Amino acid sequence: MTTNYDQEIKQLKKHLRENYDLLYRWQLKLILAHTPQELKQYRQHIRQIKREVANNEEQLALILSEKNNRLMAVSITERTAPNSISNLRFLGIIGILSMILLFLYNKPNLFLFDRGSSQTTETGLQNIKSKYDWVSPYRDGLAKVRKGHLFGFIDKHGKVVIPIKYEDAWDFRNNLTRVQLEGRYGFIDTSGKIIIPIKYDKVFDFNDHGLAQAKIGTAWFYINKLGKCVKNCPRKKAKPKQENLAGVADSSK
Q1: What confidence score (pLDDT) does residue 171 get?
Q2: 147 pLDDT higher than 60
Q3: Each residue of 201-233: pLDDT tens digit?
Q4: Taking Cα atoms as reference points, which of 34, 193, 29 lies closest to residue 104?
Q5: Integer Cα distance of 201 and 177 in angstroms
Q6: Domain assignment of residue 112, yes or no
Q7: Shared-domain flag, residues 140 and 58
Q8: Which residues share a beta bridge with 31?
Q9: Is a pLDDT exceeding 60 seen at residue 40?
């Protein structure tokens, strides 16, 4: 006899098969709760699992949150800050379940790919991983990679789209990221084009007002997304005036 629980599991597996290149080497852990009483008994264990995952650099890829006494599976594909389960960015609902908790633990550099985008095989992921010393999770279609002491970005096919030449690089925000080159800082876009010259001694991400704090020498000031100084701009040194010596007799003669 097929129960509602069995049917829900079947539907979940079908959805995963149809929508994702499934799991690769991800660890799957299921905690089953058939009744409200059993669910209550599991809650302490659930909280402990969440703490363990939140403190793990390899963040969970799927987590469930309770809503109206039901369980919602949500897909996330980015790392989160330690101890910050509440800050997980939900990217899409996989399904609503009433009797199952599903956790997928992310192993290093392996990601869940939506079939709606480019498909990647496990072999392909391993080939990407083997080329680099470190690979970040994909974000906005790009993954940051490190080779030796230099950083760049690859797309979901593993193609290098931003050269691996930067001493440091940050995550993209609104299609811009900070980079460091030859000890200086600036901004590039997702195509690798330099948007704000790499000339600053220090620079921070843009705030909600579209301004970024930057430093040259000892001067701190704010620039906009065109690279123009708009606040606390350092004064330009005045050029020394050149006296007009034409027609002045040389007193040494």
Answers
A1: 87
A2: yes
A3: 999 999 989 999 999 999 999 999 999 999 888
A4: 29
A5: 16
A6: no
A7: no
A8: 101
A9: no
